[in-house]
Design a protein that fits this description.
Blueprint (H helix, E strand, L loop, with lengths): L2 H21 L4 H8 L3 H8 L6 H10 L13
């Protein structure tokens, strides 16, 4: 996966996570408390500037969401 593509995926994922938080009326501190991820890390994730998968996974688990990318060879 190219760095550019990976960054676009993480930006989109961060936006989705922010939307989920806001739809539920939760603050960054609420999520940090329950997902064991710091407020600063959540802020970076939501802005698409953090690309460590482990923290994304923690947030996805908190929201009971799964994320999967399937890359196929187009012929």
């Amino acid at each position: 996966m190219s760095h550019s593509f990976r960054q676009k995926v993480f930006v989109a994922l961060g936006k989705m996570l922010r939307d989920l938080r806001l739809e539920r009326g939760l603050t960054l501190a609420d999520i940090a408390l329950h997902a064991d991820v710091s407020v600063d890390t959540i802020r970076h994730i939501e802005n698409g500037t953090k690309t460590g998968y482990d923290k994304y996974k923690s947030l996805l688990n908190f929201y009971h969401k799964k994320f999967e990318i399937v890359l196929k060879d187009e012929k």
